[in-house]
């Protein structure tokens, strides 16, 4: 049994998500369809991850009368993809939240050690006042995501939510143990990692499949 606080793990298993994720996993899915599916899954997951966003009232004049409308309160959301594969999820999220700010964290896994190597970072201003969504399709050892969370915490971010598409049990445990406040959304928690720290059954190398660098 996992010993993390399971209330911070949100498995988004809507039928549409399960259907699209299964096509995404297939080795026969084309690059074009893979990109499209990553984007669609990001939309569905983001919808779930933002269901508690605060609202404020404001006056709306319909053609007939004045009524009270609702709008998102506070600073614009920040979406922070972990490069490269996280980029594949950004457009989908911006479809739902077009005015979100976008930061970037550049990181790759060293092929020998599987440790994350950071090569770029640019965040929006005032992350401490924004809901921050770190997005990356794959959560394997958790090295990349914990490094990204640490970066955001060091920058002052308080509301940090991570969106992945496929996670390993080890990755989930590592992330939730690492940060006691982070919320983790994923479409599936797979069986395990193989000896090369790839997720089984997984979907292969997400970055290579999105960008056609196989
Ligand atoms: C992949 C993936 C995650 C990371 C997950 O990126 O997109 O960022 O590995 O592995 P971890 O949980 O063990 O850190 P990769 O390093 O292959 O870089 P890429 O996105 O540039 O292909
Ligand atoms: N990164 C990927 O893209 N896929 C995995 O299975 C693990 C890390």
N-to-C span: 36 Å
Shape: globular
Please compute the radius of gyration using only Cα atoms.
18 Å
Structural class: alpha/beta
Largest sheet: 8 strands, mixed
DSSP strand content: 25-35%
Tally the helices: 6
Q: Can you identify the CATH class?
A: Alpha Beta
Tell me the domain tally: 1
Subunit organisation of the chains? single chain
Low-confidence stretches: none
What average pLDDT do the residues reach? 96
Order of helices and strands: EHHEEEHEEEEEHEEHEEEEH
CATH topology type: Rossmann fold
What fraction, in percent, of the residue positions are helical? 25-40%
Bound molecules: 1-O-pyrophosphono-5-O-phosphono-alpha-D-ribofuranose, uracil
Kindly state the number of beta strands.
15
CATH architecture: 3-Layer(aba) Sandwich
What would you say this structure looks like, in words?
This protein has six helices and 15 strands. It is an alpha/beta fold and 214 residues long. The chain has a single domain (6-52, 76-203), classed as Rossmann fold (3-Layer(aba) Sandwich), CATH 3.40.50. The strands form four sheets. Strands 1, 4, 5, 6, 7, 8, 10 and 12 form an eight-stranded mixed beta sheet that branches. Helix 1 (15-25) packs antiparallel against helix 2 (31-49) and helix 2 packs across helix 3 (87-96). The longest helix has 19 residues, at 31-49. The termini are far apart. 1-O-pyrophosphono-5-O-phosphono-alpha-D-ribofuranose (PRP) is lined by residues 82-85, 108-109, 114, 116, 136-145, 171, 197, 205-207.
């Amino acid at each position: 049994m996992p010993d993390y606080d399971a209330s911070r793990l949100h498995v988004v298993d809507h039928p549409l998500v399960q259907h699209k994720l299964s096509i995404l996993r297939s080795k026969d899915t084309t690059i074009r369809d893979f990109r499209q599916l990553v984007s669609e899954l990001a939309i569905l997951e983001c919808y779930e991850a933002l269901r508690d966003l605060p609202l404020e009232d404001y006056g709306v004049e319909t053609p007939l009368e004045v009524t009270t409308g609702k709008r998102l309160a506070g600073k614009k959301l920040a979406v922070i993809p972990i490069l490269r594969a996280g980029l594949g999820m950004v457009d989908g999220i911006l479809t739902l939240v077009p005015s979100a700010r976008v930061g970037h964290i550049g990181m790759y896994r060293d092929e020998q050690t599987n440790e994350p190597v950071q090569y770029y970072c640019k965040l929006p201003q005032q992350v401490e006042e924004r809901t921050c969504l770190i997005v990356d399709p794959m959560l394997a050892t958790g090295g990349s995501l914990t490094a990204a969370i640490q970066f955001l915490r060091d920058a002052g971010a308080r509301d940090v939510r991570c969106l992945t598409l496929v996670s390993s049990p080890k990755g989930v445990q590592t992330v939730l143990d690492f940060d006691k406040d982070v919320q983790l959304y994923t479409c599936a928690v797979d069986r395990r990692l193989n000896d090369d720290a790839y997720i089984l059954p997984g979907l292969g190398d997400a970055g290579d499949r999105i960008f056609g660098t196989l």
